[in-house]
Structure formats: structure tokens, C-alpha cells
Amino acid sequence: MKAVVFREPNTRVAVADVTLAPPKAGEVRVKIAAAGVCHSDLHVKRGEWEAPAPMVMGHEGSGVVLELGEGVTSLAVGDHVVLSWVPPCGECRYCLQGHEARCQKVAQVINAKGSLFDGTSRLSLEQEDGDTESLHHYLGVSSFAEEVVVPASGAIKVRDDAPLDVIAVVGCAVATGVGAVMNTGAVEPGSIVAVIGCGGVGLNVVQGAKLAGAERIIAIDVVPEKTDMAMQFGATDRIDASEGNAVEQLFELIPDGVDYAFDAIGRTVTTEQAIQMLGLGGAAVIVGLPPTGAKASFEPLVLAEADQRILGSNYGSVRPSIDIPALVDRYMDGQLKLDPLISGRRPLDEAAEALDDLASGGVLRTLLIP
Fold it and tell me: Hey, which residues are catalytic here?
């Protein structure tokens, strides 16, 4: 099959002929309908995160089940699925407590080793000299390909009438953004919310805040077109961060500070801004992921005296098998906007161009269509 292979940071990714082995016990093979290009892919390409290489890229996608491994009873051939880059093991203490986004085995095996749960890969590449090179999986998905083999818990069955080339974005951008509001922050009706960064994840934080019943939602970005888009997704106010200090502008709008501030970018400065924007009892929710080793600062005395919190949000604290189908339902019922998140579609062999588009800051989500 065709797949996008990453080898070294800051080099151009390329499409190659890759061999995909059949699913083993507890796994499924899925034909990819669409794969979203996310900033996490860009972090890897830039060398800002450590990732096992060589690997097949991609962690957001949707498709149709083609084959079941031994023992899989939760899915059937022909099922429509959204891929989850946290396939819960169902056995560690976090999964048993219902905190599946914290799955210990995913962190220690799938993410750390670039493999599936048994520590091995289903991906390989035949070299010109006849040798076979094993390729790593990215976050247990590797969706920049014509097909994938994933743990069955990472292929989430959804309704058949939802368009697969749209709901691919539910697997990362939507689950992460809406989940950060609903699950991690647990935003209450009537709250005042600030959202720093109105890209693919930030816009989903905005519409998550709207779903939660927030009274005011302040969208903040350096690109006016993105805050314009945020207004369409439910924001009530906007701040152009390119025109001056975003924190000062926020307090001109909300003198007492906000109840929740979401950093949907993940830079040191935006994390610090989120904390500084809080009012009494407020919570800063860190959704965007920074480069490895980045550090932000805050005043612990202020945090304690103001009864404030700083929360990290991994994958929107979702329970994939429950939250992903519910998000697809909300889209089909008209409660969530997904189509405007998709800036364009490209064939798989234009993955390098799609990553360049994302790096330019001019797109939200490009879908790769094998």
C-alpha cells in the first residue's frame, strides 16, 4: 500500500510502498477514508517532539473495517469507524477508573515504542538490497496511509450515515477541543471563557464552551480571520492579539478576569497568559502541546490566594468509545460544526504540501484522501 514515511526531522516526508501485515489478536484492519493533518504531526516533522523513526505518520482519521483479528467481537467488517490515538487497554488502573485518556499502557508501549500493544509493528518496507526495514506506528494509528492496522479499542464504531471524509476530524481536533471543555474543565453554564488560539482545536474549544452554556466566550488570536471564524462557532467577543497585550485587552473586556482560560496553542507565552487572565476561582486549561522541554512560570502565592487551578488536558480527557460516537451524533444533529474546519482535501502523495500549508498558519485542517 501507499503510506507517508517520516525518517528525520526537518526533511521532506515521502510516499512509499509499504507492506501492512494482517491484524493480530485484538486488532483490526481499516481502509482509510480520510486522514487529518494536525499540529502534532508538524511537531514531529520539526523535531520538537521525540518520536520513534522511521515511521508512518498520521494520528487522525476515519475509515471502514476490512478485517478482524482473533478475538475481536466489538466490531464487524464494514463498520464505519473513527480512529482514536488513545486505544484504551482497559486493564490499567486509569482505564479501570474511567480515565481512558490516561491509559498507562498506551503511554508506556504504543507512544514510547512506536508499536502496537505487543511491542511490534505491522508496517515494513522492502529495501533495494532485498532487506526488510521495520517501520514504527505513530500513536498507534499511522493514518497517512491507504490502510491501517490498529488495536480494536482504537477503532470507534460510529453511525453509517455520517460522512467519513468529514468526521475524520472528530478523532483528534474535535475530541480534544470539545473534550477539554466538557471533561477536563467541566465548564458550567453561565461561565466566562477565554480561548487563546483559534485554529482547529481552539475553534472546537469555542464550540464546546457554547455547548456547555458559557455566557461569554472571548476568542483570542493574532490572525483576525481566525477570530472571525470563532464568532461563527459561538464566540461572543474577540481580541486581536497582534494589536497589543492580550491580557490587558482581556481585562478591559472582563475586569474581574475569566472563569476558564484555555490555551489552545501551547507556547510558553500563551500558557502564562491563560493563567494571568483568570479571575477568582478560575481554571487555566492547557490544551495545546508545546515542544519538549518548554517551561512556563506563574506565581504560586497568587494561584493559592485566588483559589485558582492549572489543568492539563490530554485528548480532552475523553472516553473514546463513549465520547467519539456522541460527538458524531452532535454533528449530525446540527449541534457541532465540522465542515468549516476543513480547509481543503489533498491526495496522499501531497502530504508534504499539506504539512507546509499547516506550517504557514493559513489553514485549519487539510484532509488527506487516499
Answer: 38, 40, 43, 59, 172
